[in-house]
Amino acid sequence: MTDKHIEMHGVRKSYRFFTLDDLSLDLAPGEVMGFVGPNGAGKSTTLRLAMGLVAPDAGEIRVLGQPMPAASAIAKREVGYVSADMHLLPNATLGWHMDFVKSIYPGWDAGYAAALVKRFNLRPGQNARSLSLGERIKAVLLLTLARRPRLLVLDEPTTGLDPVARHEVITEFMDVLHDDSRSILFSSHNTVDVERISDRITFIDRGRLVESSNKEDFLDRWRRIQLQLPEGAALPALPDLVSRNQDGRFVTLVTDQFSDGFAALLAPHVREVQRMSLEEIFVANVMRHREVRGS
Amino acid sequence: MYSGINISQTDARPMYLQIMEQIRARVAAGDWPPGKELPSIRALAAALNVSVITIKRAYLDLENEGVIVTRHGKGSFVADANGLAGELKEAQLQEHLEQAAGIGRQLGLTSEELAKRLRRALESK
How many Å apart are CA A253 and CA A91, to the nearest integer? Predict the structure, then answer.
C-alpha cells in the first residue's frame, strides 16, 4: 500500500493504429501534474486507463490505492473526471443536473455549487441545449468540482475557453489545492497554463513517455546558449547536448543538463544564455525523442 | 485573498524569481515588518494561480537569503535579524550607484564631475 493518488507501472494498451507502451507515472496527494503531448500522443488514452474506462493489455494501475479497472466503481466515487466528450441532457436545466449529481454523490457541497454558479456566470434555469461551448465546459466542471473529489482527472479542461473563462476555471483548480490531500492530473495543449500551475510535468509522444519531472527542475536544467567562436576555432566536445546548430561562427546549443560548470566550459565564447519556456522545452524534447527513436 | 504580487508573462525571469523580488521589496520598504507572517505556501499559490512548487522554491530561496524564516508547522515569517531591511536597502543602493557610475562613464564624465552631480542631487532634495 502507498498513499499515492495515481500509480501506473509498465502500462500497455494496443489499438489497431496506436500503441501506448511502457507507461509509468505517479501522482502524490497535494500535487498538480500537467500532462503534455501532441495530438494523438496518447494523453486521453492514459487518462481513460487511469479512470478504469478501458483495461490495459499489460501493466498495473492503482488509483487512490485501488486496482484499476477492477475497483473502478469504488475509486470513482472520489475521483472527478472531465473530458470533452461528456454530454449534458439537452432538454434538462443546469439546476436539474445539479440535483441529479447531488442525489448520486453524498459529498455534494450545495453551498460551493451555488458559489460556483455565480463565479462561472451560469444560470441554473437554463437548458443545457442553449449553453455556449464555454458555458457547457464550465457547467461540467461545476458538476464535478462541487462533489469535492480527492482526485481530479481533467482531459483538456481549458480547451475551447476564452481567456476570461480560462482564468475563472484555473482559479477554481488552484482553490482545490488549499487542501493538501487533494490532487489534479490534467492534460493540455496550453503550455502556458501547464507551466504556471503544475508541480510536475509529464511529456508524452507517440504512445511513449518522453520525460516526467518536477517543473522547477525542467525549467532549471534547460538552456539555449548562443555562442560566437573566434576565427578558425572549433567547439570543444560537449556532453548532454540536445541540439546544436552552427551558422559560420555563430552556434546555438540546447542542453537539458545546464550547470555553472557547463557555462564555464564555454565561457569565453558565450554571447547569451537563455532560459526556455515550457513550450520550447517541450518541442525540443519531443524532436530529440523522435530522432532517438529513429523516425 | 492576497493578490498584491504580480506574475508577468513577458518577464524573462522565472516566476519564482519574480515572486522573490516582490517579497524582498515589501520587506525592504517596511510594509512587511520583521515577524510578519507570510501567506501559507498553498494560500499564496491559490491567490496567484501558480503551482505550489513555485512558491515553495521562492520561500526556500528567501529563507537561504535570510529574508524570511520558516518554522515547521507554524509558517513563514519575515526575519527579525537586526537591520535586515537595512541590508536590503544597502544592496539596492550599491546597485544603483554602480549603474550611475556606468552611465557616467558612457557619458564620458570624470569621477569629479560624477561626484559633483551626486552632491547636487543630494542638495536638491
Answer: 57
